[in-house]
Amino acid sequence: MHFRSLRIFVTVLVGACLAVAVMILTVYAVVTNSQAQERSSHVTEQMIQEGAKHRLYAEAAYQAEKIQLQLGQALGVAKSLANVNTLMGVKSGQEDAQLDLNRQEVMNIIRQFMATNPEITDAYIGWEPNAFGPDAPLPPPVCRATVLMVASCHSGIATRTAHSK
Q1: What are the transmembrane regions (predicted)?
Q2: Closest by Cα among 160, 102, 107 to 131
Q3: Contact present, 99 and 87 (Cβ < 8 Å)
């Protein structure tokens, strides 16, 4: 290309350099911005995952503590009932039990434990035969087969038990 004057040549050259510089800076800004956005989204995702993980661990610890407390209460009731039974079996110097209760009194104690601990749904104590005097004779054994049938329905699970002789 031939230019008539040096001034026009310098102006075109400076304009072209300026255009190239603007394009390079624009490309650099776009690339840098996309990289920063990727890093930012990655860091944000990690922070969200960490926060969710901490919340889950905290909830799991809370639920575990709650279950541990409930099991501890149940264990305390079981130990107390066991101590009552132990006192009934421990003999003092005169061959008498340290705690002399009949079957009905022990059942009342169990009922009282159940009333004061509503989170406990049931309690059982097993005794040796004739622990409270002669037991009533058992009825003759009856052979039964129990079948548990579970059917799915719209409102949940329905359970029906069938007995056969």
Answers
A1: 6-31
A2: 102
A3: yes
CA-based nearest residue to 122, from 114, 130, 131: 114
The residues, ordered by sequence, that sit 6+ positions from 135 with a Cβ below 8 Å of its Cβ are 129
Whole-model pTM: value is 0.49
pLDDT at 2: 75
Identify the segments of the chain with pLDDT beneath 50: 150-165
Check the CA dihedral 111-116-122-123 and report its sign.
Answer: negative
Of residues 29, 49, 30, the one with CA closest to residue 41: 49
**Is 145 in contact with 163 (CB distance < 8 Å)?**
yes
Residue 91 near residue 99 (C-beta atoms within 8 A):
no
Distance separating alpha carbons of residues 116 and 67, to the nearest angstrom: 19
The predicted structure's pLDDT at residue 144:
61
Dist. CA 164–CA 16, nearest whole Å: 100
Nearest CA-CA partner of 88 in 77, 98, 103: 98
pLDDT for the residue numbered 152: 44
* pLDDT at 145 (0 to 100): 60
